[in-house]
Design goal:
Layout: H1 2-8, H2 13-23, H3 32-45, H4 49-75, H5 83-86, H6 90-98, H7 103-110, H8 116-126, H9 131-160, H10 164-194
Transmembrane segments: 12-31, 51-73, 134-156, 162-185
Organism: Pseudonocardia ammonioxydans
Membrane topology: Multi-pass membrane protein
């Protein structure tokens, strides 16, 4: 508890958050989202507007930096990316089919799917999407994601009273619930697609 409080009030919080969110792009192992939500909830309780602005800007900067890293790795050595970024699945196929027609929409929409950030940025690099349209898509998706994360953090503030431990627990529960919901929706969609269509009724010849 004391350690979490010390981290949230440290002068290194914002630089560390930028780095964590950036590294979370090519190697999604760090709890950057939970830290961002916890810090936002704590800052909202004490109405620390400068900190909230700093958290928002840090989220956008870290997000775009990580996106650029994944895009560069996608264009270069694929071996440095996780296997999930190189595999073909629903998110990757959807991004491939929409990337050049609607790059901003494809990157922004994929960002809110589990594993979508890694899959979409890696696919953009592999398919040779230019830097300018990629930056536009990354900027829009990063802004939307930062707003989304801060809204969740602001909503958690009154519920948790800014308690860091409760914020961490709530953030973890929310992340697990969101991932499970997307997985269930994907399974239901796959099940519906696998169900064969009913055979047409035979046409009776007229007498």
């Amino acid at each position: 508890m004391e350690l979490v409080t010390a981290v949230l009030h440290s002068g290194w919080l914002l630089p560390a958050l930028v780095l964590m969110i950036a590294v979370d792009g090519p190697a999604p192992l760090l709890p950057s989202e939970t830290l961002l939500m916890t810090a936002t909830a704590s800052a909202s309780v004490v109405r620390d507007v400068p900190m909230l602005l700093g958290l928002f800007l840090s989220a956008v900067a870290g997000s775009m930096t990580g996106d650029l890293a994944v895009h560069a790795l996608g264009r270069g050595s694929h071996r440095l990316l996780p296997r999930s970024a190189r595999s073909e699945h629903g998110v990757t196929r959807w991004v491939r089919s929409n990337l050049f027609r609607r790059p901003v929409t494809a990157l922004a929409a994929a960002r809110f799917l589990p594993g979508g950030r890694l899959a979409s940025c890696a696919a953009a690099g592999r398919m040779g999407l230019g830097l300018r349209p990629f930056l536009a898509g990354s900027a829009v998706s990063s802004l939307l994601w930062a707003v989304y994360m801060l809204v969740i953090g602001l909503a958690l503030g009154p519920v948790t009273g800014g308690n860091p431990l409760l914020c961490v627990l709530a953030g973890g529960v929310l992340a697990v619930t969101t991932t499970a919901a997307f997985a269930m929706a994907r399974r239901i969609r796959a099940t519906r697609r696998s169900v064969p269509a009913p055979a047409p009724a035979p046409v009776l010849a007229g007498r």
